[in-house]
Amino acid sequence: MRRWFNLFWIITVLVLADGTQAWAAAGKTAEKPKQQQVVLTSEGGLEWNSAKKTLTAEQKALVVRGDTALGADKITAYYKEGASGKDSEVYLVKAFGNVIITTPRQTVYADTAVYEIEKSVIILKGNPVNLIAGQEQMTAQILELWQNEDMAVARQHVTAQKDSRRLEAETVKAYFVKKGNATQVERFEAEDHVTITNDNETVQGDFGVYLVDKETATLRGNVKISQGKNFILGEVADINMKTGVSRLQMLPEKGKTKGQVRGVFVPDESQKGKKAVSVEKPKVPASLKEESSASGHKTNEKLLSSSDEGE
Questions:
Q1: Can you tell me the distance from the alpha carbon of 210 to that of 159, in angstroms, rounded to the nearest whole number?
Q2: Is the peptide bond before 128 cis (omega within 30 degrees of 0)?
Q3: Do 75 and 99 contact (CB within 8 A), yes or no?
Q4: Which end of the chain is more exposed for a tag (fewer CB within 10 A), N or C?
């Protein structure tokens, strides 16, 4: 049965913060997880389908759970009856169109979202999904927010940028940490076509870890550090973006001799065709000229000139 509520309408249902099943499976003796409310609001009416056990909100639809708010053009919440048979539990929320999620850790913009309540995981898709956390901005085609782990996993054409530093890869994990009253990204773990660039250099590799506060990175696998047309190749690189100092080395392999780091330095083409800078010949001091003339010997000036002619 479907029922429409045409007034501004709020429905509140109870869910478990971490899931009763997960709590019981772990054999916890600590206090049972507290229940959190899921609040669904809409200015355009709400459809309740008791047969499918869904609640659908349109026009400025909003779901709030704890400190997480999810807004969209359309939101459908899926619920099930609680163990007592009285309370209902929302276990899944789907959002479509102009999705925005706000938490104390980040703000995310996307086209669609699926919120798995029991796992505290939100999967977002967009072209692209845009995450903002402090001064960091990350874009991707797919983004997973793992709220209990304070982590986000971005996939497909990922870019993370802060000021002039830019991190690109196919998969990037961002770990969040609280600093004072604010939450920021502590580190990135990137893999598959990893590239880090700043004003001075470009670093490429198969896998990389970037520490945001220290501005240092470690890359492994097919590492290439470039400055202009010059570059060096190796297997492991430690890069300090603050100081501009990089250390590159090769990894030893069993049964093989350790390879060598290789550098290629390309001459500046703009200097080709230019005349060489002329160097002025040193002049003989006047005092030496006078001494040589008085003794009847050849002057140093003549010796210098004769040696020049023989060259």
A1: 13
A2: yes
A3: no
A4: C
